[in-house]
């Protein structure tokens, strides 16, 4: 449950939604590990020419560099979800906070030869005001979400019907959508889901677009 307004978050270069007067939605995927679903997700995004942001952790970079490079080659953003996926709200020192982010940046550059964009999502969305301030001081934009559903339990995946009920009825202009790349449901429905959102009049924007607004 969110406890800060968009205006309050903007003071820290943080977002959970985009402009409500534009039929643009922003697709984001949290990627903690690879279990064979990402290729189908990327195929669907490519078919619809829909950009997305993948928030990755250290394990993902270490085990799936080829998928990281495919994401980049196909125009997606690969962003910072911390190296070890800790509860960042419990980290009080700037030094420790910086280490979680910079260790991931370093690994990203090693496998891609590129500089990681300064986009950050706190693991599990847990944060404190001091965290937001530290991220801002380090040059980061922090991204939460305005639409998500329970898609991360591997042994209890939602049905297609359950997923559509949540994702179609609750979509809204400016939505930052959180999905998980480990979800077999997401992998199987994404093509149809994107089609349905397009039929509802939505287009897909990038977090870079959002930051410029």
Characterization of the model:
This protein has 213 residues and is an alpha/beta fold. The chain is 42% helix and 16% strand. It contains 9 helices and 9 strands. The protein has helices spanning 6-10, 38-48, 58-63, 65-73, 94-112, 129-137, 160-169, 184-199, 207-211, and strands at residues 14-15, 24-31, 52-56, 77-80, 119-120, 141-143, 147-148, 176-180, 203-205. The strands form 2 sheets. Strands 2, 3, 4, 7, 8 and 9 form a 6-stranded parallel β-sheet that branches. β2 (24-31), α2 (38-48) and β3 form a beta-alpha-beta unit. The longest helix is centred in the middle third of the chain and has 19 residues, at 94-112.
Q: Helices and strands in order, then pairings?
A:
Blueprint: H1 6-10, E1 14-15, E2 24-31, H2 38-48, E3 52-56, H3 58-63, H4 65-73, E4 77-80, H5 94-112, E5 119-120, H6 129-137, E6 141-143, E7 147-148, H7 160-169, E8 176-180, H8 184-199, E9 203-205, H9 207-211
Parallel strand pairs: 1-6, 2-3, 2-8, 2-9, 3-4, 5-6, 7-8
